[in-house]
Amino acid sequence: MAKFEGLLMGMGNPLLDISATVGQDLLDKYEVKLDTAILAEDKHQPLFKELMEKYSPSFIAGGATQNSIRVAQWMLKDKAGQTAFMGCVGNDDYGKTLNECASKDGVLVHYMKDEKTPTGTCAALIKDGERALVTNLDAANNFKPSHLDTDKAKEIIESAKFYYIAGFFLTVSPEALAIVGDHCVANNKVLGLNLSAPFIVEFFGPKVKDALEYADFVFSNESEAEAYGKVNNLGSDLKEIALKICEGPKKNSKRSRTVIFTQGSKSTIVAHDGKVTEYAVEPLAKDKLVDTNGAGDAFVGGFLSKLIQDKPMEECVKAGHWAAKFIIQTSGTTLATKCDYEG
Ligand code: 26A
């Protein structure tokens, strides 16, 4: 395996998305709402079988953090090998597919392998361009901090300058997040987190609070931001909520925090040093929308691709908007052979 001399490391849940266009009947049957992301309960298990048997789904590499890292690498074009990703997969075909897909995109993949558990899957139910995500974490849930002690992981952690972990990973290993976070604090490196889903904010509150102390960048969409405001009694004004998150406790006092809220086709809110800036989004014609699955991850990927090149905020947001617009015109996080972003 090549030596990692890149800039950006991600750690998260590698998942294979099982994506299909469905009717309201299937959503109702499994009590799943559009625009949500949840962990599968027992009642959702037959859904996976039903999708395979009746819906001819597509299998697409997924997992929120892995999507962002793949997009970041793709946006970096000829600068291959700038990104690395860690997570846990099973010793099976789905795990191999994920490895091949991310490697082909130029990401250095260093998976932990769980011999006894299948690779995680996410049912992506698409209706009218919106999506509902139901996840069986399986092997992804068995990531252990001990993986960070492997020589390859140490090399990646030491070399990288930027780190990104979606909040979804708080359901798996807050300990591993803290190890990476402590490394960032000790070396004044940059860590980005994502609130990921309302259920993370609602049911993992203390873990989110601890993780945020490490965050130099916090990404979220409007529904997660609203949930955060509600749970923490910060009101419902998104700009106020963004400023409050900026001001929250922070372990590395050498950098001030930036908070970024995307709002679909509405303008993106960026809060930093007591100031809020809004960046308009160029809307996509409705007939061009395929599905919104991966839009938020792609925004982060585009944003990070510029951040790690020390570009100004405006350029980071512009690249994020472009990547999100690209991804909502494809099924899940499916990338073109070449990225033609010219920013
Ligand atoms: C812990 N959970 C629920 C999850 C996820 C997840 N990635 C990590 N952890 N639930 C859904 N996803 C991924 O989100 C992407 C879209 O933003 C899906 O795999 C999908 O590719």
UniProtKB/TrEMBL annotation:
Pfam families: PfkB
Every Carbohydrate kinase PfkB domain range: 37-335
Gene3D superfamilies, alphabetized: 3.30.1110.10, 3.40.1190.20
One GO location term (cellular component): cytosol
EC number: 2.7.1.20
Transmembrane stretches, start-end: none
Pathway the protein acts in: Purine metabolism; AMP biosynthesis via salvage pathway; AMP from adenosine: step 1/1
PROSITE patterns assigned to the protein according to its UniProt record, in alphabetical order: PFKB_KINASES_2 (PS00584)
Key word Magnesium present: yes
GO biological process: AMP salvage; purine nucleobase metabolic process; purine ribonucleoside salvage
Active site: D297 (proton acceptor)
The keyword Transferase is annotated on this UniProt entry: yes
Function noted in UniProt: ATP dependent phosphorylation of adenosine and other related nucleoside analogs to monophosphate derivatives.
Family: Belongs to the carbohydrate kinase PfkB family.
Name listed for the protein in its UniProt record: Adenosine kinase
Organism: Seminavis robusta
